[in-house]
Amino acid sequence: MFGLYAWMYEQESQNTSNRVKETLKTRAKNGLFKGSNPPYGYEVRDGKLYIRNDETPNIVRRIFREYLEGNGRQSIARRLYNEGIPTPAQVAGKSNAGDKWHDSTIKCILTNPHYVGDLVQGRTTTVSVTSKRRKKIPKEGQFIIENAHEPIISREMFDAVQNQLEQRRKYITAPKIHLFTNVLFCADCGTGMWFRSNRDGYICGAYARHGKKACTAHTIKEDFLKETILNDIQSLIHQIDKEQYIKKMERKSKSTKSDSQKRINKITKQMDVLKNRKRKFINLLADGIITNEEYQESIEATNKELTELIEQKNKLLTFMEGEDVIVTIEKLKKELLQFLNFDELTEDMLHRLINRIEVKKDGTPIIHYRFATPKIE
């Protein structure tokens, strides 16, 4: 019976979505902008796009000009961020707007045909009403009205930028993967650390991408990290047979399991709130209170929160179902003895023994070993 209700709910949701899409198509055919947020540099009045009377159109022109002058998307984004230029999300007044410009933001502006004065609608659509994924619509299936509004960029400049984007794409090389890639993170901002050969080590990714306004370098040498981890392994093997170590682990495990259960209960309540929120969104869409784009944006944000909560809950449940401390310590000892005589840290050792490493501002590493009892915030 539940399956039948679920099917009926999905069908009604799909019918509502189709009705909304047909309405939006009609507006597009009439040359009216149908998005919930206009392109950066424009505003919507009576369904039409007009150039904003502020600095945003000049920022668009600057982005196109600097890219043609040979600047990369990331370097353009870094300068805009360091100069404190409001991002498109901030200008649109989004509640979750960040102040950092990104490579992807610059790319969206450089590839947006609205800037030459053409109204282009229906470039993407959802795969289904129950999926947040979107797919591109072929150009022949889009609604294109040429010279529908005042351009910010000339067609010649826009075409030149598209050509440059294609040329540069052909010569992009894949980033090099180093030993601590995807394991090493900045302790202050949480960004992954980037390897720099001129430093023989790693620096904060936010600092590397956005400069000192975003974070500080948090520099750490790769050889120092290797030596620290190998020394830790040697030290732990000598401690692991001591009775006080086992008792300490037992006390910590009992306390942590209790904290884990409290956290699981809290996460379950948060998930219920988000599920109720999703049901409200479909009703708002059906009643025409929100647009299809606003609906999709809200659902995507809610689904992202749900996914994160589910991952947190699953990790906690896995820990709660773990073996007792004595068995865990015996397994740990057996695991560590395999690496006792190693004088070089290998990728296999690293990922088997370590979950995550955080680097403090002064370069001190905080190493989260897989065999340590998890700390629940």
Share of helical residues: 40-55%
Q: Uncertain spans, ≥5 residues at pLDDT below 50?
A: 1-9, 373-377
Number of DSSP helical runs: 12
Q: Report the count of strand segments.
A: 12
* Structural classification: mainly alpha
**Radius of gyration, CA atoms, in whole angstroms:** 27 Å
What does this structure look like?
The protein is 52% helix and 12% strand. It is mainly alpha-helical. It has 2 domains: 21-170, Hect, E3 ligase catalytic domain fold; 184-369, no CATH class. The strands form 5 sheets. It has a 3-stranded mixed beta sheet with strand order 7-11-12. A hairpin with a 2-residue loop joins strand 1 and strand 2 (48-51). It is globular and about 75 Å long.
Quick recap of the structure?
The chain is mainly alpha-helical and 377 residues long. The chain has twelve helices and twelve strands.
Layout of SSEs?
Layout: H1 2-29, E1 42-45, E2 48-51, H2 56-68, H3 73-82, H4 88-91, H5 103-110, E3 119-121, E4 124-126, E5 134-136, E6 143-145, H6 155-170, E7 184-186, E8 193-196, E9 201-204, H7 205-210, E10 220-221, H8 222-239, H9 243-286, H10 292-320, H11 325-337, H12 347-353, E11 354-359, E12 365-369
Parallel strand pairs: 7-11
Antiparallel strand pairs: 1-2, 3-6, 4-5, 8-9, 9-10, 11-12
Descriptive labels:
377 residues; mainly alpha; Hect, E3 ligase catalytic domain fold; 2 domains; three-stranded mixed β-sheet; three-stranded antiparallel β-sheet; 12 helices; 52% helix; 12% strand; disordered N terminus
